[in-house]
């Protein structure tokens, strides 16, 4: 999905750290834009994507700020993913987080 050593990490109050990954390091062909939008008073308007990979789909699981406010300009051109909507997160081959497989 994404592989980067250039991610920016934002630490925000009441949220887990958010990794903003440069688009060049994200497999954008696995993301489909949606109509969903949100607003952050510190970063601006966020656009969302649905992620489809490995036979699974996660709706509105990735987002970015296409034109962030000046104080957040560093995250322009980056994509972030919800921790709990991805199956796993890894750093240097070590698993940081894994979501339990959905069961019926």
Describe the fold and architecture.
The protein is mainly beta and 104 residues long. It is 0% helix and 48% strand. It contains no helices and eight strands. The chain has a six-stranded antiparallel sheet, with no helix packed on it. Strand 3 (31-40) and strand 4 (44-53) form a beta hairpin. The relative contact order is 0.19. The model is unreliable at 94-104 (pLDDT under 50).
The geometry reads as globular
Q: Output the structural class.
A: mainly beta
Could you give the count of β-strands? 8
Main sheet attributes: strand count, strand direction, barrel closure: 6 strands, antiparallel
Order of helices and strands: EEEEEEEE
Helix content: under 10%
Q: Over all CA atoms, what is the radius of gyration?
A: 14 Å
Topology:
Layout: E1 8-10, E2 18-22, E3 31-40, E4 44-53, E5 56-64, E6 78-81, E7 88-91, E8 94-98
Antiparallel strand pairs: 1-2, 2-6, 3-4, 4-5, 5-6, 7-8
Task: Please outline what is shown here.
It contains no helices and eight strands. With 104 residues, it is an all-beta fold.
